[in-house]
Design goal:
By secondary structure, this protein is α+β, with helices and mostly antiparallel strands. It has a single domain, classed as endopeptidase fold (from Nostoc punctiforme). The chain has a 7-stranded mixed beta sheet with strand order 1-9-6-2-3-4-5, with helices on both faces. Strands 7-8 form a two-stranded antiparallel ribbon.
């Protein structure tokens, strides 16, 4: 008998998502597949959920956003109003809709972050975004070199370029949730999955992966 992990419809979990929750995606492109093989992991991309009201963005409905670093897509960054590479804040619904309809990703999972989201947490998150928002996504060579330099040699690379897991690590470090004894470029998407599951500070913890299906098309 073939047993599969049960999935949850996006609409049923959407209201539960909070700033700081993780989004993990499995990609289908060659670079994504290479990352998944190197990590021995299902996931090659990680992003962070943001509620617009928490960071002072007046978008009308406490919009659900995704803080991620990636190559450009037709989904615009909500701050600059354009498509961009590198760190970006995008409409999460639109990002999922684009990915699934264009076959960019084949699986998506959520991990809830359990921590206190007080005014300091929200202010820190708001202030960390402009620190790296103008960074770019690394070219293919540095996409693999930077994590090697960090993970093998514990050597920090420039924040002028940021891969998705580097941005996630930077964000959690700025929030005081992740130790800074390792540079941000030492982290890979697998570290944020259940397979390795990073250890967090301040008694924070991450819930189990919740596989979601897109029921908003």
């Amino acid at each position: 008998m073939l047993v599969k992990k049960q999935t949850t419809g996006f609409k049923s979990i959407e209201a539960d998502l909070q700033t700081g929750d993780l989004v993990l995606m499995e990609g289908i492109h060659l670079s994504s597949r290479c990352i998944e093989v190197l990590e021995d992991s299902t996931f090659s991309h990680v992003g962070i959920i943001v509620r617009s009201d928490d960071i002072g963005l007046n978008l009308g409905t406490n919009k659900l956003l995704l803080w991620e670093s990636d190559t450009p897509t037709p989904v615009n960054d909500v701050i600059k109003g354009i498509s961009k590479a590198g760190p970006m804040l995008v409409d999460f619904r639109e990002r999922l809709r684009y990915n699934f309809t264009h076959g960019e990703d084949s699986k998506c999972s959520i991990r809830h972050l359990y921590t206190e989201r007080d005014s300091d947490f929200k202010e820190t998150f708001k202030n960390l975004i402009p620190k790296v928002h103008d960074a770019v996504f690394p070219d293919t060579w540095h996409e693999f070199l930077n994590p090697t330099m960090g993970r093998v040699f514990n050597k920090e690379t420039s924040l002028d370029t940021l891969f998705c897991s580097e941005l996630a690590a930077f964000t959690y470090m700025q929030l005081g949730l992740l130790t800074d004894i390792h540079p941000v470029n030492s982290y890979m998407p697998v570290d944020f999955s259940e397979k390795l599951s990073i250890s967090l500070l301040k008694r924070a913890w991450l819930g189990n992966e919740i596989s979601i299906t897109l029921d908003i098309l």
